[in-house]
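Data availability (excerpt). All sequences and predicted token strings are deposited with the supplementary files. A representative entry, ArsA/GET3 Anion-transporting ATPase-like domain-containing protein, is shown inline so that the format can be inspected without opening the archive.
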Amino acid sequence: MVKGGNYSQTEALRKKVTSRIRDYKKGIEKVGRMLKDRMRTTFVVVCIAEYLSIKESQRLLRELHKDQVAVSHVVVNQLVLGDFTTLPIDDSAIARKGEEALGKAQWSTVAHALQFCRARNSIQQKYLSELCNFPEVADANLSVVQLPLLPYEVTGVPNLLNFSQMLLPDGYRKGSTPKPLVDRVSIPQELYGDSRSFMDGDRVVVTGLVKAQHYNGRPAEVIKVTDDGRVAVRVEVEPNKFKMLSLKQDNLKLADDDEQQEDEEELQSKSPRFI
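Structure token line:
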């Protein structure tokens, strides 16, 4: 129920709400286009080698593929790795030498810890193999990066630097020619330049024109960014009257939020009260 208002105020409110919903829709569509833009967005899926985690990762990969979102790597964290996982501790000769070197009680503790690591490694290798054989991973030729379980927390610059090296192929650490983590088409650096600074649907303002100064300050909407880097925009020259222009990106700037804030304040001051 509307109290203290009239038809004109109600109609103005309806138009503003409708306009705001359209703006939200444009924003959502813009984010969707950005996520599907392989030059801007690439997902890296991080998981651990356990049943629930790899199943959730498989579902995520399936959804990303369905929505045409690029994925480059799958990182598997906290893996129990090392030669000790294959040490034959059940061998009587090794057990005897261990008891002689450490004592029976200490060797029993070490043997129990090694058995635990071996069991954990066996479970993780099972799920790691299952992950690598997922169609979402194998068919897409995704690179699976295996990271070990560390005896320390990854905090501080030195630990972060050491951990970052584990994300790189061996060639980067040894100084030789690195092996690519995944076969991908190389992307020219120029594709990341200013030609991608505006997206379809962006609300902009014309500025800095010399020969056509009467367009400066006019609101516009980006229609398309052309291959030569220019931007096709629809400029509002009069209320509900538009003109198509092809402008340099230097002559456009994203619309400020000041006008939107003023509209919100005006709406709050003039809106009828709802009870």
